[in-house]
């Protein structure tokens, strides 16, 4: 499988995935289909713009004409494109249902109608709901229990992906991953928001008491897991991927403050997220056993690297925070 259609490749994980694949497999051909929503930024891919094996297409995954045209030439679809921010889904879930559910349906139909193209769906641990402090970690057999509009839309898409496998024998795999961090993450998510706020001498908004727990994985470790599934995963199967770093938000906040030489006076406790899931954690033993995959990055080192990246790429996030990135990196592309 050397011709890949990546959806959402101008976002955080997708752009890291494209870099990861082209570095490791320079002869692979990649088409990146991305609508360039607020979260899509072509600056993430500036260094490979001229690579002959890479092509960018601006387009919506809900547009069956664009999608059908593109899938004809590929032997694998890796579907990252989504509305990904929980807080936005709480404010308005419309785009989440459209992109995350209808978009997945359009891609699945295109894959089905063009010779059953191999399809990998990038999902999230949030589809399994929320854990209490002493609950066992999620695994591939955990029942779905999404509790916010974002995770409900991701779970709905997963049901469709599995339905196309059972009904149409579409060769699918699914990965459910925990919270990613690393370079090119949009500064609305916890880690990049806090790092960039502190660089601007602004306080960091901790929801509630900061006791909620997430399992953090370095983005390259996630992408190595996706690579392993594409290469060795069993068709029709789900694989849980996680970093093995369960940390409360307030602890992460303190780690960031400490690494950036700032004190607790920079914390602002703000009202909690509605329906805030308490804890996510993943049991990754299936991926380890069947794929030989496990996360490599130590959290302390990964956080240090991430802070350094944001320090060394101030123009990148300042253009995002000011809205200027839309002007410079999106205007040159037009809908097909
Ligand atoms: P992101 O918000 O950074 O990027 C999403 C990308 O999708 C953007 O480039 C955007 O322009 C594009 N997009 C949105 N709607 C589109 C549409 N209708 N048509 C075409 N392109 C569209 O997201 P991310 O954090 O990189 O997440 C990528 C995927 O990984 C998502 O499916 C998300 O659910 C999943 N995931 C994310 C995490 C995480 O911690 N960020 C963890 C597990 C799973
Ligand atoms: O678990 C995987 C999911 O991780 C992905 O599917 C989502 O796409 C991704 O956005 C992420 O969701 P979270 O809601 O866990 O990530 P976020 O960075 O928004 O929040 C992490 C935790 O930090 C969460 O408990 C809420 C809290 N938080 C977040 C923000 C933005 C704060 O306390 N303050 C904040 O300003």
Would you kindly provide a written description of the structure presented here, covering whatever features stand out?
The chain has 336 residues and is an alpha/beta fold. The chain has a single domain (3-186, 216-248, 275-297), classed as NAD(P)-binding Rossmann-like Domain (Rossmann fold, 3-Layer(aba) Sandwich). Helices cover 41% and strands 17% of the residues. Strands 3-2-1-4-5-6-10 form a 7-stranded parallel β-sheet, sandwiched between helices. α2 (64-71) runs parallel beside α4 (94-113). The model has no long low-confidence stretch (mean pLDDT 96). The site of 2'deoxy-thymidine-5'-diphospho-alpha-D-glucose has 19 residues, from α6 and β8.
